[in-house]
Amino acid sequence: MKFRAAVLxxxxxxxxxxxVTQHEGPAAGExxxxxxxxxxCRTDLAVRRSAGRSPLPAVxxxxxxxxxxxxxxxxxxxxxxxxxxxxxxxxxHCHACLGAAPAHCDSFASLNLFGGREGQASGLTEAAxxxxxxxxxxxxxxxxxxxxxxxxxxxxxxxLPLELLGPxxxxxxxxxxxxxxxxxxxxxxxxxxxxxxxVGLAAVMxxxxxxxxxxxxxxxxxxxxxxxxxxxxxxHAATADLPARIRRLTDGGASCALDTTASAGLINEALRxxxxxxxxxxxxxxxxxxxxxPGTLDRGRALVHICEGDAVPGLLIPRLTALWQAGLFxxxxxxxxxPLADINQAEHDCDAGHVVKPVLIPGG
Length: 364
Prior knowledge:
Elements: E1 2-8, E2 16-22, E3 30-39, H1 42-46, E4 58-59, E5 64-71, E6 83-86, H2 95-98, H3 108-112, E7 124-126, E8 145-149, E9 153-155, H4 171-182, E10 190-194, H5 198-210, E11 213-218, H6 221-229, E12 233-236, H7 242-249, E13 254-259, H8 264-272, E14 274-282, E15 302-305, H9 313-325, E16 335-339, H10 343-351, E17 357-361
Parallel strand pairs: 10-11, 10-13, 11-12, 13-14, 14-15, 16-17
Antiparallel strand pairs: 1-2, 1-4, 2-7, 3-5, 3-8, 3-17, 5-6, 6-9
């Protein structure tokens, strides 16, 4: 099967829209999905900073949503015509996977970031015949079609706006999952969110839906305005004595905080914003040492890393779509769509902060 895909050939190159060939049909347990839309995530763009680690040339993209067009046998649980949201890959049989914690799969990094399953090729080649890297996050969905494991495809209501649902498989899943799963936030809880991008604003929406009080911290006035629209208390990151201000707003300190910035300074301020026994979750990868200031972890405060919102995608994605249908999780207000051919403009706008969540439309 031949189709168009956005190929990244080197860590410094632009994406190029090319014709690629998928040489094999779906294996047992796999499905072929016609992509309706794919979100652009910071993790896709971080490949540019990981020279020598993530194999290239590759088709990236891991927030895909689309329609099943072919199945690899009768045991996939899906059928042609099903609408699905695609999420991250996991082995399915390690201790974490069997314990309903697939984001902590023993093979998470190798499966999603560094080349796929042992001995697996993507089956994708470029027009000249050269092989492309194995599936990115089990998807490679910056493309018109993707072949994925059926258990990483979550069936959704066909009445939903399919082209917009892809970010529910990663970015929005991470922010909302941090609130619902990692923190278990509910009425009476207080949450401080540092960084009001796609993940942070998803956390804001989830927390307000759960009945928690939310403070959102960012430097971008437009992001703070969005957070306020979603019923958060906005605070500029340059606010004088920011932790004390948050403690006053939350009657003694936030019960939990989420940092999406990986800024050592803001992480320390987030810790000082917590009440005793409060928890701070980090979702962004740290690229430098994290010096903690004296006293930040006193009195039972805890610092944890959160991967993929500690989510089981097949459980959380339907919950998020139900909240959207009820008007309680308006993630569509964060999205700007681009034709797949405009992927480089989408990347520029994302880097420049002009858009919260770009979504690429192959048919656009």
